[in-house]
Design brief:
A seven-stranded mixed beta sheet has the order 3-2-1-7-4-5-6, with helices on both faces. By secondary structure, the chain is an alpha+beta fold. 52% of the residues lie in helices and 25% in strands. The protein is built from eight helices and seven strands; from the N terminus they run H-E-E-E-H-H-E-E-E-H-E-H-H-H-H. The N and C termini lie far apart (71 Å). A hairpin with a 4-residue loop joins strand 5 and strand 6. The chain folds into two domains: 157 residues, Roll (Bifunctional nuclease domain); 59 residues, no CATH class.
Length: 223
């Protein structure tokens, strides 16, 4: 009986905690975010910066993520289809098989530089909230096509706005970046569309998604 009593109290605690989190989230003003892109992290070697931007504003949130998570997000952003389902694709297929929908992703807390997120799911009978890493949450949101939200409080803490001077500096540097991109993509100009499509399939089969992205860009230029 003591074990049963302890188990019952544990369930009540989890339910009350989830309800408490949801009430706190409802009181906060939700802000919709969009995935702006991914770039190499300038502060951490081997890491990437996932940049989110508020839909009706200029603030952006940079989030440092690992290489595997960056690849999972980049594949979806680039519209590439891996030969075998990746972990997040498996999660999508599994959820769809049991009529579970991901309604939205909520980035609800920022603590010591770490973003906390949860998945808002619905199976047609009840809605549940599942704790998840923000990088995984974003990768799933892109696959389910659901919105991403955060609070005004988090945007005030972590949001950044590019100054006009910084934008002008970036504009001046753009020709150099274009030249480097042109040099990289120039290697594929000699191939025909049929050859490029074959190379694209091979790159995807070998899971070389960075190369596949460049080949796909060359194909898009010609179509």
């Amino acid at each position: 009986m003591p074990c049963l009593h302890y188990f019952t109290n544990s369930i009540r605690f989890v339910v009350n905690l989830e309800f408490s989190i949801e009430k706190t989230w409802v009181r906060m003003s939700k802000v919709k975010l969009n995935v702006l892109g991914i770039s190499y992290s300038q502060t951490q070697s081997g890491a990437y910066a996932l940049v989110l931007s508020e839909e009706n504003g200029k603030r952006r949130i940079p989030i440092i993520i690992g290489g595997f998570e960056a690849q999972a997000i980049a594949i979806q952003l680039e519209g590439l289809t891996p030969p075998r389902p990746l972990t997040h694709d498996l999660f999508l297929n599994f959820a769809k098989s049991f009529d579970v929908e991901l309604l939205d992703v909520q980035i609800y807390k920022l603590e010591e530089g770490v973003f906390f997120s949860k998945l808002h799911c619905d199976n047609g009978k009840k809605e549940v909230y599942i704790d998840a890493r923000t990088s995984d949450s974003i990768a799933l949101a892109l696959r389910f096509g659901c919105p991403i939200y955060t609070s005004e409080e988090i945007l005030e803490k972590a949001g950044i706005v590019l100054d006009i001077e910084e934008e002008e500096v970036q504009t001046e540097k753009k020709p150099e970046k274009k030249e480097s991109k042109t040099t990289e993509s120039g290697a594929y100009k000699q191939y025909s569309i049929e050859e490029l499509n074959t190379m694209l399939e091979e790159a995807v089969m070998n899971e070389d998604y960075e190369k596949a992205s460049k080949i796909r860009d060359e194909i898009n230029k010609r179509t």
